Amino acid sequence: MRMTFRWYGKKDDKITLQQIQQIPGMDGIVGALFDVPVGEVWPLEDLLSIKEDANKYNLDFKDIESINVHEDIKLGLPSRDKYIENYIISLRNAAKAGIKVVCYNFMPIFDWTRTDLALPLYDGSTALAYDYRLIAGKSPQDMAREILDNSNGFVLPGWEPDRLEELSKLFEQYEGMDEDRLRKNLEYFLKAVVPVAEECNIKMGIHPDDPPISVFGLPRIVKNEEDLDKIVNMVDSESNGLTICTGSLGSNLKNDIPHIIRKFGAKKRIAFMHVRNIQVHEPWVFNEVAHKSKHGSLDMFEIMKALYDVDFDGPIRPDHGRMIWNEEGRPGYGLYDRALGANYLCGLWDSINRIYGAK
Ligand code: DNO
Ligand code: MN
């Protein structure tokens, strides 16, 4: 297993590679090219330059999050073939730069969605939160404005102001799109890219929908075990893998995460693990918490034990953290709480290996 930390790059992340290197047990960074518009080719030299920077601090760069999928692919438009071709070139470049895992998602229009980016918790920290009652009856534009007001200028991915201007057009394009059609479009994409990923020795890992429920009436197809089954069956290859994000899937308590890990881990379909805890108050009302089990609804020991049982040897990262110790910056992606989270996961992992035997 390699312990990793998501990094937004020299230009956009105030967290330095040196700081990441100083987190005990850290093996590598998870990076991306944030300046390349969605659908364009990722240049090899830009990937190599991240790798070179990371390696200077004894950190690997073997995992990408995410090469985003162009909206025309999700919509199944004729123009998708050109974007798929570009995706394939990006995958080949990634392989040349030593990348082993590529995370992506297939959520229409938006990436992950929250109704509050700085919910105050009992201890003075703040966390990301979701409450379906705050979304009901609102347009995405209203939501975006509300979120912008309390987020220090940061926006959720997919909610950038220039994108919001074209939102009505995007929603029109999705009219009549149901889960089955969206699934067909995913299958078309996977049938084209997975053979290339396989040839390049890369595992693709689809990220669950976050939250795993339809938002603003848009279809979502990565919500539960049944959805994951359908996806792994679309192309029979270990390169057609999953990112198991415990905080995303876990916001529906019906999703039994240790069981899901055992099932898809046994089939070697887990490409990437995002491990974080959340407190679920009632269906679709939840907030993120510290990683430790006692603070939330998920049993982190059981999650790590399931990974041990299936000999998981891919990348794992702490996911969103709270803002603590007066840290300011990108909601969910501060240094301190994620570093604590990583350390807690390392502690669990070490203990499990000591008790049940190192493999
Ligand atoms: C949420 C985060 C997301 C994720 C992307 C994957 O749980 O991990 O930002 O990175 O949706 O494409
Ligand atoms: Mn995640």
UniProtKB/TrEMBL annotation:
Pathway: Carbohydrate metabolism; pentose and glucuronate interconversion. It catalyses: D-mannonate = 2-dehydro-3-deoxy-D-gluconate + H2O. Its EC number is 4.2.1.8. InterPro entries: Man_deHydtase (IPR004628), Xyl_isomerase-like_sf (IPR036237). One of its GO terms (biological process) is D-glucuronate catabolic process. Belongs to the mannonate dehydratase family. This is Mannonate dehydratase.
